[in-house]
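As a warm-up, study this chain.
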Amino acid sequence: MTWTIIWFFVNMLFVVSVITYMFVHRSYSETKRQTSDSALIQRLNTRRKLIGILSIVLFLAMSASFMINMKLNG
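Now compare it with the structure written out below.
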């Protein structure tokens, strides 16, 4: 039961991070298209990469907790 709860919360965090990544990516691409402020574009690109890395880490954690849950609970 514990791993089911862990999987559920990590899954929610993963979904939130992917949705956040989509919004940040849209902000980055719109800013890149509309302005030529290189400092702002660089800041948004860094933020986009960090959230992307966080999403990948959360996906791996979600997958691992799901596999552990399935091994223990069948």
